[in-house]
Structure formats: C-alpha cells, structure tokens
Amino acid sequence: MTEIIKPTMVDYTRHLLVCVGEHCSDNNAGQALYDQLKDKLKESGLNEGTLRVKRSRASCFGTCKSGPLICVQPDGVWYYDVTSEKLDRIIKEHLLGGVPVTDYIYHQGPGATI
Ligand code: FES
Q1: pLDDT at 84
Q2: How far is the CA of 16 from the centre of ligand 1 (A)?
Q3: In three state form, how does the secondary structure of 38-103 look?
Q4: Fold for domain 14-108?
C-alpha cells in the first residue's frame, strides 16, 4: 500500500498566478514570463522572508484576451498584457510597495483593496 505523505509549503504573503495557456498570448509568452519571474522575485528579495511571493502556472483563467495575464492573490488583482517591463513595475509598486498598478488591471476580485 502506498503511504500518503502530507505535503509541506513554505509560508508566503502573496500568490502570483501566471496563465501559460495558448489562447491568451502568442509564442508561449505566458510561459516566458513565468520563467523570468523566478529570477525577478529573487532579485527583489521576494523569494523568501515576510514578503515571499509564491508563483504558479495556470492553464486558463477563462479570460483569453490580451495576455500574458497574471493574477495576484489574496489581493484579487488581475493584470493583462504583462510584458517583462510591466512585470518589473508590478513587482516594485505592487508586490514591494503594496500599491497595485492600476494602468494594467483588467479585473478586481473580492479581495481587492483598491
Ligand atoms: S489561455 Fe490564458 S486566460 Fe485562457
């Protein structure tokens, strides 16, 4: 019989989801953005500590337009057309500064604070 092992997870403050689905961006742009995110979070010091950001890939948010799309939880903030440069601004102003970048938001969920 296979033993079921309870998973463990390092604490985090925010969870950033990146859509890597093929319907919202061309040329695997979502996956490319996700790949960059690891280094960007590390460079910003967000890979550990009290502001640690967890990152995950999603296959579709059901809003397949103008990707790459990212979602920041529990803030309930959804960004569209996220380039590497825009991601830098989101990291600096939202993830580090706590102020979402309204210019890039296409939806706000129930946890939204702005
Ligand atoms: S494929 Fe990205 S939202 Fe659907």
Answers
A1: 97
A2: 15
A3: HHHHHHCCCCCCCCCEEEEEECCCCCCCCCCCEEEECCCEEECCCCHHHHHHHHHHHHHCCCCCHH
A4: Glutaredoxin (3.40.30)
